[in-house]
Prior knowledge:
The chain is mostly helical. Helix content is 78%, strand content 0%.
Amino acid sequence: MAVLKSKLLLRISLVVIILGALAFLFLHENGILKYLELKSELNKIDSEITASEEKLKSLQAEIDSLKNSKEKIERVAREKFNMMKKNEKAFKIDEN
């Protein structure tokens, strides 16, 4: 009978220790849940960095084309700033 009680006590102690260790791993401030949260945030930041790098490359290409192409400068001046050459008439058509 004493052997059964000691085995039962050993099993209960082992279960309590395992449950305590699992609770510690999951609920501790540096546990698995915090790790998963930080990993998700890291992935989000990485995707934002990738998008920003692509936008930067696009803007750099736009800057280079404006530095090297007179046609590009003229097109941007006409489209964005409504500029025109001397003795040139512009007509604006409203599409209502």
